Amino acid sequence: MTHLKKIRATYKNGVIEPLDKINLPEGQALEVEIKSLPSVTAELSRDQKRELIQKIRGSMRGTWGNTVEEIDAYVKSERKSWNREF
């Protein structure tokens, strides 16, 4: 039976390294499809975050929080959810 599972991985020194847990028997044959993802950008500065909060005033205001601290907490909780299995 064929199972489809997506995982995140990085490519280092000629080796694909999984970032997610892979629950497969040792020696399991796999077919791998490679899709490059955009690079993660650097964290915004506190001033850049405040500037963004000012720009999103209106319909989006309050969706993720109203302060830098609230938005940082929201982003942190979202990032934790990314580490789940598909």
What class would the helix/strand composition place it in? alpha+beta
Number of strands: 2
- The radius of gyration is 19 Å
Residue runs with pLDDT of under 50 for 5 or more positions: none
Amino-to-carboxy terminus distance? 18 Å
Portion in strands? 5-15%
Main beta sheet, described? 2 strands, antiparallel
Shape: elongated
Average pLDDT figure: 78
Query: How much helicity do the residues have?
Result: 25-40%
- How many domains comprise the coordinates? 1
Instruction: Give, in spatial order, the strands making up the sheet with the most strands.
Output: 1-2
**Helical segment tally?**
2
Can you give a write-up of this model?
- The longest helix is centred in the C-terminal third of the chain and has 14 residues, at 68-81.
- The protein has one domain.
- It is an alpha+beta fold.
- The two termini are 18 Å apart.
- The mean pLDDT is 78.
- It has two helices and two strands; from the N terminus they run ββαα.
- It has helices spanning 46-55, 68-81, and strands spanning 9-12, 15-18.
